[in-house]
Amino acid sequence: MDTTSPLPLPADRIPPGTADWRSADARRWLDAVPAAWAHPLWAVLALVLAALWVIAAAPDTVCTPAEPCGTDWPGLCVAAALPLTLYWVVRQPRLALPGLAVLVLGDVVVSGSVASLGEPSMLGFVAASAFTAAGLLHRIGAAARQRALAREAAGPAVHPVPAAALTFRRGRLSFALAGLLLAAAVFGFWQAQRVVDDFERRAAALTPVTGTVTRSDADELVIDVAVGERVHRVETAFSERYPVDSRADLLVDGDWARLAAEPYDVFGWELLVLAGLVGGLAFLANAVDGRTRSRQLHRGPLPVLRVLVREGHDDGKTWVYAADDPAAERPLLHFHSLHSFEEDPDGPGDPHDEDDEDDDEDDDELAEGLRKVGAILKGEDPPPPLREAVLYGLPYTGAELAFIAPDDEDPGEVAVECSVTAVKPAVPGLFGGGLPTPAPGRSGHPDGARPRRRPVDEVAATLAPSPAPRTWGATGVSRGVGVFLLLVQGGGVWSLLDGEVSWLSVFPLIGLLFVVTSASTALNWRLTADRDGLWIAGPWRVRRVLWDEVAAVRHNRGGDLVVVREADTEVTLSPVGWPWLERRLGREPYGPRAADEAHALLRRPALRPEQPATAAQQGMPAGPLLAVASVLWGAAVLLLF
């Protein structure tokens, strides 16, 4: 909790009639975030899986002399629409809706029949598109509700943005990158068409001849075709369709020979066109969207809200708090922002008019800047201050804003900043941007290596004396980490043993067996506090540490739960979860909570359980069982596959 007062914004810089964005209104705004089912992750997964199904169910391409393989620009455009739509589902919901329509209609055009929509794979893709469209409409509606709530909180007062914000321009870099990538796509198309035109001119005077395949190389994708007494070596993408002694039609012009069914190869140029289109259109959409939102801030007066802001210590984001939250306990939203400066109408001055003393001032500023950089690298820099601010524009998910606040480096000056990323609500869970993490080195650990620990008194207030032992163990997230590690280990064993095995395979296998230790901990770790001390169930055994031997219980940033003993030794359980994922899912990280509560029992003996732990409460190591299962899996791969 921050006990210092926010840096005040001069009264003459606060537009008249500016309303405070208070916590009650802000909570209503936060409650309007989209539902979890509409998160882009689920839509992207549904579309990707459905697209893979469509690709797997599609018939293999058959190239024949009557219908030779060539360029397929309509199909390439549909292929480019898929990654673009996936990207827009995450970043640009309004553009993703027409992107979905292009995908569905494009598949119909490419297949050549509306009846293709009745195929199971296409029905699955249409269903995934409908689910995605429903999520997009829900997100757009939620943003509209947030906008309405923000307008209600702002009241009738509207004011033009500060003059400095008018000079701020968005999208120039994106426009430049879009131009380069689209130019690359045009160049790739031009080169591909040159190849096609050269072939058609040459083949116009040729008649296909039939030869016998004498060699088919699937590794080099070439075949040898004997025409009379001459053997021609030609490239093919489908060498398996030309077995030895089969017949193949060729177009021959001296030493030049091509398969009539596969007359030319422009796959590389098509890839360039695809990459250029996807990247270029993505940057172009970002540029247009950024420029449009930036111009919206410049058009006429805007609603204003009085808030508190703070720059994130570790991520550089601007975090916004309610005006009546001087302790900065509950952030509302966040975005990245940049300072905007008024243009000097007189232009730069004459450098000869500067005094020689300016050189000394520049040296002092450089030294001060280097000192600050050193402090940041050492984790000794002070946290950014909380500042009063005025928001220009209505905040909602995906919006862009401008604000005016005291300069955090020179509180006597006022800074104007404009957002360069879209607004995200500060809510735990999939739709929020999470909550700001404590600044490193602010919790009694000067090195900043450990996360902030809750005060013992605060934790003890949540614990009531209990006669029964207290236990902490693996949760759903922790077990998910364990299952993932087991899948990695099982896949590694498969890849090493499913083939030629040598003595060199032993070393990677030994390394994979160490994964069993981490997986066993994640799946079945347990910490039990009873009358006499702590029981620690790790991957291979259960250890006993008496209260008199315990110096501290902590949770490291890397996900380890550590019991420190007086003898300068530690008992470590790793991993015991994934705090970052738990926060994103809207849950309290369980590992830090277990460490804080066990540490509180250590420091407050009156809260310790009165009974000893039973064998069932002490836990059981899962390492031996998983080790046997891993050995059996390895034997099965060797013997059965």
For the structure shown, list the relevant keywords:
single chain, about 650 residues, alpha+beta, ten-stranded mixed beta sheet, five-stranded antiparallel beta sheet, 16 helices, 22 strands, flat
Please give a structural write-up:
The chain is of the alpha+beta class and 641 residues long. Helix 4 packs antiparallel against helix 5 (120-154). The protein has helices at 23-31, 40-57, 73-91, 93-111, 120-154, 163-166, 172-203, 267-298, 357-378, 456-460, 476-497, 506-524, 579-584, 590-603, 615-618, 623-640, and strands at residues 19-20, 158-159, 209-217, 222-227, 230-235, 247-253, 256-259, 302-311, 318-321, 331-335, 337-340, 387-392, 402-406, 414-419, 424-425, 470-473, 526-529, 533-537, 542-546, 550-555, 561-565, 570-573. The chain starts with 18 loop residues before the first strand and ends with a helix.
Ordered list of secondary-structure elements with their pairings:
Elements: E1 19-20, H1 23-31, H2 40-57, H3 73-91, H4 93-111, H5 120-154, E2 158-159, H6 163-166, H7 172-203, E3 209-217, E4 222-227, E5 230-235, E6 247-253, E7 256-259, H8 267-298, E8 302-311, E9 318-321, E10 331-335, E11 337-340, H9 357-378, E12 387-392, E13 402-406, E14 414-419, E15 424-425, H10 456-460, E16 470-473, H11 476-497, H12 506-524, E17 526-529, E18 533-537, E19 542-546, E20 550-555, E21 561-565, E22 570-573, H13 579-584, H14 590-603, H15 615-618, H16 623-640
Parallel strand pairs: 1-8
Antiparallel strand pairs: 2-8, 3-4, 3-6, 4-5, 6-7, 8-9, 8-12, 9-10, 10-15, 11-14, 12-13, 13-14, 16-17, 17-18, 18-19, 20-21, 21-22
